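re: the backbone from monday

yeah here it is again, tokenized this time
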């Protein structure tokens, strides 16, 4: 057995537990603070946009482009208030784990500075490469595309990390041909 393996085992066995101190003794004080749930949607959306997303969640009605823009703006504002600088379309491909396609809220402007941007189009659909997911290696490159589509029935949430917070947008994942290639949409 190589020496590095023994060293790794020793490091794992001798590490100390990380102390976790909840922000309050009452779970209800901090439960779902990083979830863009119905309460937060109601606070950040217009009455019309809020009703549209509730109708979508409860009845499957379509969300128009204007409403998608409003929801994306509200989500971005909420996420940035929570310290997020990036967003990801989070999905569950048939690989047995989750996958993410990350993007930044910031885009360069024509004068060399940057602006915070997150559109309804970016919220609703993205195009990660599907070549590394199930059956990806047997398709032609142009056919190895996959598309993520926002699933409003699962609330967006903030994933906190040392390197920065990320807005996670639950999505479904489909192939170039429209085939379901994730656990959520099966």
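seq for it, each position gets an aa:
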């Amino acid at each position: 057995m190589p020496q590095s393996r023994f060293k790794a085992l020793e490091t794992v066995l001798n590490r100390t537990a990380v102390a976790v101190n909840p922000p309050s003794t009452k779970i209800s004080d901090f439960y779902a603070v990083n979830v863009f749930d119905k309460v937060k949607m109601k606070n950040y959306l217009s009455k019309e946009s809020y009703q549209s997303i509730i109708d979508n969640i409860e009845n499957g009605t379509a969300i128009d482009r204007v409403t998608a823009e409003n929801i994306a703006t509200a989500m971005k504002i909420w996420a940035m208030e929570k310290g997020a600088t990036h967003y990801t379309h989070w999905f569950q491909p048939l690989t047995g784990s989750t996958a993410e396609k990350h993007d930044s809220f910031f885009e360069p402007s024509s004068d060399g500075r940057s602006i915070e941007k997150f559109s309804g189009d970016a919220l609703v659909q993205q195009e990660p490469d599907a070549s590394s997911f199930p059956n990806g290696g047997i398709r032609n490159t142009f056919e190895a595309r996959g598309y993520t589509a926002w699933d409003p029935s699962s609330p967006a949430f903030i994933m906190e990390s040392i390197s920065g917070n990320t807005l996670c947008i639950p999505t479904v994942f489909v192939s170039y041909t429209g085939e379901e290639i994730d656990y959520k949409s099966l």
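The chain has five helices and eight strands. Residues 41 and 84 are 17 Å apart (CA to CA).
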